[in-house]
Write a structure and sequence with these properties.
mainly alpha; Cytochrome p450; 18 helices; disordered N terminus; heme; Cyt_P450_sf; monooxygenase activity; oxidoreductase activity, acting on paired donors, with incorporation or reduction of molecular oxygen
Length: 479
């Protein structure tokens, strides 16, 4: 009797203590409306600051506005774009981890992005079943992501494309060596043409000869595809933010996106249709052992869980997302190597070990995995300083405590990894290009939620391994 009474008192005391602790924690959490940040004049929103010629910010330089807001408001910022539309910017890697590690049962990671592209595709149900990987959320997104990633994300599938990647890249480097002028004024179109060629070869088993003189002309198929992808990507942020008047009538920004997408869609449909003409014949060869699957498209066409509408959407997504992302990444890596001749020399020595005779030797998968460690460090350090995006976007699936503030479910949160990766609190000599910080012998202790150029978790870039392989091969061949 006495023992049970003691246990009862201990239990009561424990409950009271835990409740009081919880109360203290809740009292220390500040409300959402106290998160610092710009609200615009009279609370009407800060969107005007992004209007060219009027505001001080630009959608083309979000890292600069991100740095400015960090200096003014600190590691968590609430920016009201227009009344009722907030973005919470996060700079602290612990807050970033809290958002990206959300494992709410039955809920998939969501984001608000490519909203105008989603409208374009939903208005065309004869071509698309969904808005595609970039714009779709929830179970609809997971149904197509889980099927499409089988051919695009698995290490073995990516390795199977290495011989073709190396062959085309060797042709590209040879074409650069044969140019009449020693100095190329703008290398971006050439890099983009290589990435377009690789995408079309891996996705459709089609050679466009994108870096030939004919295809480098302004009105060629390759040039128009690259231009359409760039126009679409430039239209995403202006149509995602603000009042989104394009939902009610066709604005100039939406018109640009529509026209660009119409051309990309037409090309995607033609490439898929071309493959369908010979698909049955290829299937017979595959069954007899006289043919191997040579493209992602063949893999997808054999998948009973994918409809033709899904495959056309994925083809359009690859053409849209795969060209300029890899091209800008490669360009920044070459830029940093130019500014750092010691790093360039170390990469050259490594390339010579892997390719003692660059015109005869092939890059083997084993060598790329185990012997190209410095090349991988160069790429990672370049992505630290100049990632593809400023950070990762999410819509909160549940209430969260971030930076000591309560942030409600449904809030749009965007991480500011680019800004954080240039801070001394997280990196030694943060603005310097030092690939050695990623080498095993001299590796720095880095929070894993700082450098996230391909996103994180289920929603990370579906073609990450493919993109990295293509860039590594080009760097080794070019150097």
């Amino acid at each position: 009797m006495y023992l049970s009474l003691v246990k009862s008192k201990i239990k009561s005391a424990t409950l009271m203590t835990s409740r009081s602790c919880a109360t203290v924690v809740l009292e220390n959490v500040k409300p959402y409306n106290q998160i610092p940040g710009p609200r615009g004049p009279f609370g009407l929103g800060n969107l005007y600051q992004y209007i060219p010629g009027i505001g001080k910010y630009s959608f083309d330089a979000l890292h600069e506005s991100g740095q400015d807001k960090y200096e003014k408001y600190g590691p968590i910022v609430r920016e009201t774009m227009v009344p009722g539309q907030d973005i919470v910017w996060l700079y602290d890697p612990n807050d970033i981890a809290a958002v990206l590690n959300d494992k709410t049962p039955g809920i998939y990671p969501s984001r608000r992005s490519h909203t105008a592209l989603a409208k374009y595709r939903r208005d065309r149900p004869n071509v698309y079943r969904t808005a595609g990987l970039l714009a779709t959320n929830g179970i609809e997104w997971w149904k197509i992501r889980s099927e499409l990633q089988k051919g695009l994300s698995s290490p073995q599938s990516v390795r199977n494309f290495l011989p073709l990647t190396d062959k085309v890249t060797r042709e590209f480097v040879a074409s650069m060596n044969s140019t009449e002028n020693d100095c190329v004024k703008d290398f971006m179109p050439a890099i983009s043409s290589l990435n377009l060629e690789l995408i079309c070869l891996m996705a459709f088993d089609v050679r466009l000869d994108s870096f030939s003189d004919e295809q480098m002309k302004p009105n060629s198929l390759s040039s128009r595809l690259m231009e359409s992808a760039e126009v679409t990507n430039q239209s995403i942020l202006p149509t995602d933010q603000g009042f989104q008047l394009w939902k009610f009538f066709e604005t100039p920004a939406y018109r640009k996106l529509r026209k660009a997408q119409e051309f990309m869609e037409k090309t995607a449909v033609e490439l898929v249709s071309q493959k369908l003409l010979y698909f049955d014949e290829d299937q017979q060869k595959l069954a007899s052992g006289r043919h191997r699957s040579r493209s992602l498209l063949e893999e997808y066409l054999r998948n009973p869980n994918l409809e033709l509408h899904d495959i056309i959407g994925m083809a359009a997504d690859l053409l849209l997302a795969g060209v300029h992302t890899s091209s800008y990444t490669t360009a920044f890596a070459l830029y940093h190597l130019y500014l750092n001749p010691d790093a360039q020399d170390k990469l050259y020595q490594e390339a010579c070990r892997i390719l003692p005779d660059p015109w005869e030797c092939q890059i083997e998968a084993a060598a790329l995995n185990s012997e190209a460690s410095y090349c991988r460090a160069v790429l990672k350090e370049s992505l630290r300083l100049n990632p593809i995006s400023i950070g990762v976007g999410r819509i909160l699936n549940k209430d969260a405590t971030l930076g000591g503030y309560h942030v409600p479910k449904g809030t749009v949160v965007v991480t500011q990894n680019l800004v954080s990766c240039r801070q001394e609190r997280y990196f030694k000599n943060p603005t310097k290009f030092i690939p050695e910080r990623w080498m095993r012998e001299t590796k720095e202790d880095v929070n894993p939620y700082l450098v996230l150029p391909f996103g994180h978790g289920m929603r990370s870039c579906i073609a990450r391994r493919m993109a990295e392989q293509n860039i590594l091969v080009l760097l080794l061949r070019l150097i």
